[in-house]
Design a protein that fits this description.
The chain has 246 residues and is of the alpha+beta class. The protein has helices spanning 17-43, 54-57, 84-100, 120-131, 136-145, 147-151, 163-176, 181-188, 191-206, 229-243; strands at residues 63-66, 74-79, 106-111, 214-217, 220-221. Helix content is 52%, strand content 9%. Strands 1-3-2-4-5 form a 5-stranded mixed sheet.
Length: 246
């Protein structure tokens, strides 16, 4: 008996083209969301819940970008000088905040170099060495204001690992600020400077910091909901104005 031929139109098929398309879209979505979460974990604010003790966030000798005599509002920012998001915060949020709220708030910066940024520690050493000659704020502004020339590769897209090129820029900043260059180099290499960097990292970890930048306002972590820098800036300013009773 001859085998009966099956009608191709009635043969049971596998998943339809539409079903495969739906699965592909879901897979891509999962990968994209996963990528965003990885990026946020590495470079964006951590997610602490509780108010952190003032003596953990700030020490008597912690550096301030601006300071208010009344001490009513203190913002503590844990930073990584080579972190691209920190630089973007400086350009769009905290740098403008320091100028616009100068003398009305205290803005404290703490070191929290991340392992994926090879020049974060050398840059922190440069900032700390400048601080020992009374030029912390000026070096802070140089490092973020001229970020692309030392922190990024020549393509401008990826972080650099060229420590010599970075050090040449740090030396140029030191000369522009009128620092004693020999002392600047000694201080950069000193155990005391490294200890300050390590202390910042330890305090940040105690405060629940896992990424940069992470900000605390009067001991409570600032966790913005906005997805643009203008939105984040406005959220922070609204919070500060409330604490300042404006």
């Amino acid at each position: 008996m001859a085998k009966r031929k099956r009608n191709p139109l009635t043969v049971k098929k596998g998943l339809s083209a539409n079903a495969w398309t739906t699965i592909a879209v879901l897979v891509v979505a999962v990968l994209v969301i996963g990528g965003v979460l990885v990026f946020q974990y590495k470079d964006s604010p951590a997610t602490g819940e509780d108010t952190v003790a003032a003596d953990v966030l700030r020490h008597p000798d912690s550096h301030t970008v601006t300071e208010a005599k009344n001490g009513k509002v203190t913002v503590v920012e844990f930073i990584d000088y080579q972190c691209p998001v920190c630089e973007a915060y400086y350009q769009n949020v905290t740098g403008k905040l320091a100028n616009d709220y100068s003398g009305r708030i205290t803005l404290v910066t703490r070191n929290f170099p991340l392992p994926m940024h090879p020049l974060a520690v050398p840059a922190a050493r440069a900032a700390e060495a400048a601080a020992l000659q009374g030029k912390y704020r000026e070096m802070y502004d140089k490092l973020y204001g001229d970020y692309r020339t030392w922190a990024l590769q020549p393509d401008g897209q990826n972080v650099s690992s060229d420590e010599k090129r970075a050090q040449d820029r740090f030396d140029a900043y030191a000369k522009e600020l009128g620092l004693d260059l020999d002392r600047f180099h000694r201080d950069q290499a000193s155990p005391a400077v490294q200890q300050r960097i390590d202390q910042g990292k330890a305090d940040g970890q105690q405060a629940g910091v896992t990424g940069t930048p992470t900000l605390f306002v009067n001991g409570t972590q600032f966790r913005p909901t906005g997805n643009t820098y203008p939105m984040i800036s406005q959220e922070l300013r609204t919070l500060l104005d409330k604490d300042l009773d404006l």
